[in-house]
Amino acid sequence: MDEREEWLTRLRRLRLGWPLRCARSFAPEEMALLREGLWPVSLDDRWVVWLEGEALRVWRAGTGECLYEAEVVEDAAGFGQCRVLRVCDDPEIYQRCAEESGEIDRFEGVLALLLGRRRHAVA
Asked: Which domain holds residue 80?
């Protein structure tokens, strides 16, 4: 079993989702990285991110709980567009922000951290 398959056995699907409008675009290079997946390599890595088809999911590595699920549509040029973001709405799993803008900022922060770190690791 490879690393990705091993992680996938531990990760849970988003059960209760709070839908938000989101206007996040992804460059073709980011789409490629998201399709590969961003898998933890040490105990310091707190997140798992993977784009499967049109579903971008973000999990907490320690618990395996899915906190974010986004619909990402890719255009002919390879750019991705997210218009809907669902945020975990189960208070036993995740304390979401009361305002949409705060939750989108959290989502953006996780993506920026992971995509930036992955770019540096590949370079």
From this structure: 3-122
CA quadruple 109, 114, 115, 120: dihedral, nearest 10: 130
CA distance 56 to 61: 15
Q: How many domains does the chain have?
A: 1
Tokens 């320690």 found at: 62
pTM of the entire structure? Answer: 0.85
CA 87 to chain centre: 11
Confidence of residue 42 (pLDDT cuts 50, 70, 90): confident
The single-letter DSSP state of residue 46 is: -
- Strands 47-52 and 17-26, by their bridges, are unpaired
